[in-house]
Amino acid sequence: MRCMDPGLKAHRSSSEEKPGSELRARLHEVIFESDTPAGKTFDVALLGSIVLSVLAVMLESIADVKARFGQELQVAEWVFTILFTVEYVLRLLAVRKPWLYASSFYGLIDLVSVAPAYLSLAMPGAQALLVVRVLRLVRVFRVFKLTRFLGEGHSLWNALRASRPKIVVFLTTVMALVCVMGTLVYIVEGPENGYTSIPRSIYWAIVTMTTVGYGDMSPSTPLGQAIASVAMILGYGILAVPTGIVSSELAKRAGTATSSQACPSCSAEGHDEDAVFCKYCGCKL
Amino acid sequence: MRCMDPGLKAHRSSSEEKPGSELRARLHEVIFESDTPAGKTFDVALLGSIVLSVLAVMLESIADVKARFGQELQVAEWVFTILFTVEYVLRLLAVRKPWLYASSFYGLIDLVSVAPAYLSLAMPGAQALLVVRVLRLVRVFRVFKLTRFLGEGHSLWNALRASRPKIVVFLTTVMALVCVMGTLVYIVEGPENGYTSIPRSIYWAIVTMTTVGYGDMSPSTPLGQAIASVAMILGYGILAVPTGIVSSELAKRAGTATSSQACPSCSAEGHDEDAVFCKYCGCKL
Amino acid sequence: MRCMDPGLKAHRSSSEEKPGSELRARLHEVIFESDTPAGKTFDVALLGSIVLSVLAVMLESIADVKARFGQELQVAEWVFTILFTVEYVLRLLAVRKPWLYASSFYGLIDLVSVAPAYLSLAMPGAQALLVVRVLRLVRVFRVFKLTRFLGEGHSLWNALRASRPKIVVFLTTVMALVCVMGTLVYIVEGPENGYTSIPRSIYWAIVTMTTVGYGDMSPSTPLGQAIASVAMILGYGILAVPTGIVSSELAKRAGTATSSQACPSCSAEGHDEDAVFCKYCGCKL
Amino acid sequence: MRCMDPGLKAHRSSSEEKPGSELRARLHEVIFESDTPAGKTFDVALLGSIVLSVLAVMLESIADVKARFGQELQVAEWVFTILFTVEYVLRLLAVRKPWLYASSFYGLIDLVSVAPAYLSLAMPGAQALLVVRVLRLVRVFRVFKLTRFLGEGHSLWNALRASRPKIVVFLTTVMALVCVMGTLVYIVEGPENGYTSIPRSIYWAIVTMTTVGYGDMSPSTPLGQAIASVAMILGYGILAVPTGIVSSELAKRAGTATSSQACPSCSAEGHDEDAVFCKYCGCKL
């Protein structure tokens, strides 16, 4: 597992360096680790709170529920917000380099999951954004010691990252295609059939080429239907490309995943299974 | 076919241990095996009954049919239910360890396929659940001695099981994404455009990101359409991930399925299944 | 190209055996081959007729066109039908074993493409079925000497045939799932929301799980929407399975496609690229 | 990056041959290259203009915006058109063989992106076609020196081109299937259910089999729904084929992309790109 995202690496290294003060070390153990009883209890309680807080936000958005339990849900939300704020501050205190944590992937999510509550004091409605707390549930993998799952997540992530250039090229092509298709249908169908502007027609083209097909707009002239048919078949065919990219990337990875053996001389890893000599220093494995 | 699910293994082992009593052995042969004439007749009759019983339930749900043949269908259903109950009891008697059968995959399906009928005595409507009987049709593979098909099913199942951690990570990500997307559209479009609550908006997000696109809800504001476009393209791209996972898993499996035999002279492996001589040293395998 | 469909093999072998009579040989050359000038002219004329005849059928179905050119289209259709009937009879005469041709893939299509016209004499409306003539266009590949394309088609076909057991298992699972899902929604939503019967609900489940999503039926109760969400995500995930099957099959084929070298002793083909000795007879390659 | 499209190769070779006149060489450097400061400035300015001009066309199509800023947008469009025309002429002057550039991929796009403006003088409405300018954005990759991205694009393109015969066979099959399915539903549902003609029913079949499913037409008779169900499941399964083709093609390519270097001592191949020593005999590569 040489490959991990920068955020993770950051706080792992900070935990290995052992924070100076005794208290900080203890705090770190409880909050960041999950292999001591205290740490595990903390994490399970945290996950429970996250689920409950997200449910509270969702329930509040249902008119009937809000009418009956509005007061209680409001209180619950603020309790959770204060709880998560305290937790965020503690996390900042627990690491030696707070900035590294704050700018890591998890750090940003932790911040984003409390911010909307405070924001809602200034502008009402921002509250609904609290649902982003659900993103914090990614921690669930850590608690159940499912490093295996995290590893899988990273291998997926790496496969996606490795195919990024291909995906960028692909998306740019799709974007250009969608613009051209949308404009063609705008010209052919025109505002009288619901294609009131080019951006709206591009929205239609996206709905069509991703095979979503709401049906809120659909071509009604024969020529428009012919263009739509071409767009659909193109979209259908294009669907094959990202799948092919990810498949071949994962397959390649599966092929090279058979490493695990380190060179006894230079400790390099990543040798093929049939390798007899280290490919970096030439020593016998 | 070294790979089979635990349930199957369980009742195979119980059949290998040979039930003590003569009668039980005979019963077992008829009910569980399909290579004796009696066993085959029993299985074909069983499959026929299953198809007929499922058709009866389906037909009963059509108003016109029920009005005319309601009485007859009711009778037929109870006949099938009693038949399947007797069969279930006989299966329990035929194996030495009834509990192993009852808790196996097939045992559970057999139970579930009779339960709703009895349940419908207490609460009407549960009857429609009898359609789960259709699941029992999986037995069809066994009757026609299509072990090859069953083997294929297991290899598919194994591929899926091996990629389970990847799939769990993937589904969790999708769930979080769907929640965030649904909430965003809820905030932007609001109840006046049909997005009456966050759960309902999440339902919309699922409809969109899986590219189903009913069109019962669709964004009408430009900003909502922009967010929907992002959701669609994301969903479209994400579709590539599970496909890639299963493909690469099946490809890996296909790759390793042909090896296993080592050359007796040079011990090289990786020969094709039809190889008679070692492809590296030319010795007979 | 050791692999070809039985139909093709049949009429190739009958062409290799050379028909006895001189006339039949000449007829065979013109009708079945496309490498002589006469044969090529015949095939191009045939393809043109097919396209025109299909267009005629399609145009006749448009009310406006039928009102104006109904008479002419009717005549054209009968001309084409008689032409194709004559061609079919000639084909039967041109081969030594007419039955082999008649029961081959192409023979059946040729028959089916004239039958509806005669059928329409007895029952009006069958005429529209003449569109199946479009299937005859598969011959287009042969004319342009695109054997390479035909080869590709066969390799695709072989990949599909090799994965048939997996596909059967997959389809059976999907069928069972669709029945269960449809019934569940039928129970939850009920006739008052448009789910009037189980078969109709199964139709909805198919529309949903294949991610088509017309929107002619869509769940309106929260519980129904929850079940629909599960069905969608399941359908979305299941989409990965056939793709994975075909991908891995094609990849395997691509891997073993690197043969081309025949053993000098036993003339067996299909050796791996790194093979030094023939894997069938043990001779040096 | 051994693989590039003919157009690119063409103008690279013409740039290597160095244009005779000093001025032309200078012009070429500014317009075609992006590694000198002047060349980079030119390219960034160009990309900015393209984005702005496309936005102008899109905005003009929105009724509200046109009412208020119609005059200004019109002016902006003509400014951009003249600018791009000048650029096109300069490009023609900058290369030694203008015809090679004019007929290359980029040359054609450059021409197409100014033509509609002049066309709109003759026939109003053609203006909307100016959106094709968006295609010129493909140049974005070159500016940021993302040759890596261009390379990826080419590898994608090659994979698609290599699988062209398979894709042609596949599309022909889909076309034939769509015609047959559309006709079947036309016969079953008929004009009274919205299936007014065969071409329109074929449009419906495409909408269904690509899993788009607008819902503007959907079968209402039980038999029509049964046929639609078959079409959906077929379409769903067929989706697997192009994906499989592209995946296996990309996988093959990925497999062969890392080899090419042979060990000088034992002549073994298949080393990774970062290998310094032969993994079989330990000699320096």
In DSSP terms (H or I, runs of 4 or more residues), the helix count of chain A works out at 13
Oligomer: homotetramer
> Could you describe the largest sheet of chain A, including whether it forms a barrel?
none
Structural class of chain A: mainly alpha
User: Could you spell the SSE succession of chain A in H and E letters?
Assistant: HHHHHHHHHHHHH
Averaged pLDDT of chain A, please? 74
Low-pLDDT runs of chain A = 1-19, 255-263
- Share of β-strand residues of chain A: under 5%
Distance between the termini of chain A: 20 Å
- What overall form of chain A do the CA principal axes indicate? extended
Quick overview:
The structure is a homotetramer of 285-residue chains. By secondary structure, chain A is an all-alpha fold.
